[in-house]
Design a protein that fits this description.
This protein has 2 domains: 170 residues, Glucose-6-phosphate isomerase like protein, domain 1 (Rossmann fold, 3-Layer(aba) Sandwich); 138 residues, Rossmann fold (3-Layer(aba) Sandwich), CATH 3.40.50. 45% of the residues lie in helices and 15% in strands. It has a 5-stranded parallel β-sheet, sandwiched between helices. The chain has a 4-stranded parallel β-sheet with strand order 7-6-8-9, sandwiched between helices.
């Protein structure tokens, strides 16, 4: 568990600082939401790490009963979402860590022609320029990270906006910040060790992360950590749906995969039984399967615990694969080719 020469950006240090991002993000957005009173729906337009946080925030708020399933809609595309009402009671959030994501820029430009209330969240870039030119509210978050490593800032900022706009009660922010504060150095050391063990378990295989429906956004984010940090193919799905289709796909080649089942104590009893039976079936086919019992006394704690666990797991997997976990050269290559 020592720093590696491969980790040129010192991601391991960044991981230890992630729990503090939530409170900082909330502070950066202080007062911005007061201009959005009367908002009934929120559309977050973003890609990659600039959208994942909105899914996580939505699931946290819904699972804890702080909002209904229709408050937040995440748009991952160009333009405006079809079939979603956009009027003066809509808050349209253009989210882009760099501020230069082309999908988010196009969406913001089109949203300017609607009656929606507008907000930009970025480190700067064109999003900030457009917001400044059009007198649109803007939250500037700290730069110097990969978007996937700034989720805490983004979650904290957007949640502060929703609280100040009276979309959700203030307790939602208090609970989240308190949960992050409980992840101290001792807890990080435990997660570091467990993450390294998971990296050894999946090394040389394709990781597959499975969870219940309530935890699907966490499972999705976890698999993406294997992709972006670990430079490794990975997939995710949710119980019980995966039992009705995906399971049969492992009739052949199951031994190429290492499965990680995220189990919460709140999971439906039948889902837990499905996990146990699915584990046995996959192991009989030659697959590696590990049941990861999620720790934490509430959804917020469980979410933050799991996200950090997979930061560490994917960090160590990158080192085992011989890569610096931070850069994403294939993504940068794609962006360069798109400009030609």
């Amino acid at each position: 568990m020592t720093n590696s020469a491969l980790d040129k950006s010192n991601l391991r240090k960044t991981i230890t600082q992630m729990p503090g991002q939530y409170a900082v993000g909330a502070k950066l957005a202080q007062g911005v939401g007061r201009g959005f009173a009367g908002v009934k729906r929120v559309i977050v337009c973003g890609m990659g790490g600039s959208a994942l946080y909105a899914d996580l925030l939505k699931d946290y708020l819904v699972q804890e009963g702080f909002c209904n399933d229709e408050l937040i809609f995440v748009h991952r595309h160009y333009g405006l979402p079809k079939g979603v009402k956009i009027d003066s009671s809509t808050l349209f959030v253009a989210s882009s860590y760099s501020g230069n994501t082309e999908e988010s820029i196009e969406s913001l430009e089109k949203a300017l022609r609607t009656k929606a209330r507008l907000l930009g969240i970025a480190t700067g870039g064109k999003i900030q320029q457009i917001c400044g030119k059009n007198n649109v509210a803007f939250i500037k978050i700290p730069s110097g990270l990969q978007p996937r490593h700034a989720s805490g800032y983004l979650i904290g900022a957007l949640l502060r906006v929703l609280v100040d706009a009276k979309c959700v009660q203030a307790k939602a922010l208090d609970v989240l910040v308190e949960a992050a504060g409980k992840i101290d150095g001792r807890e990080l050391s435990k997660l570091d060790k467990l993450g390294e063990e998971i990296s050894a378990f999946v090394f040389g295989k394709t990781p597959v992360v499975y969870s219940s429906h309530a935890f699907a956004s966490v499972a999705r984010t976890s698999k993406i950590k294997f992709n972006e940090n670990g430079k490794n193919p990975a997939f995710y799905n949710e119980f019980p749906e995966l039992n009705h289709n995906e399971l049969i796909g492992y009739t052949k080649l199951a031994d190429n995969y290492a499965f990680l089942f995220l189990q919460r104590k709140e999971d439906h009893p039948r889902v837990k039984k499905r996990m146990a039976i699915t584990k046995k079936i996959l192991e009989e086919l030659g697959a590696k399967v590990e049941l990861v019992k999620v720790e934490g006394g509430g959804f917020a704690q469980q979410m933050l615990w799991t996200l950090l666990l997979f930061e560490y797991a994917s960090y160590y997997l990158a080192l085992k694969n011989g890569f610096d976990p931070t850069p994403v050269p294939l993504v940068e290559k794609l962006k360069k080719l798109l400009k030609e």
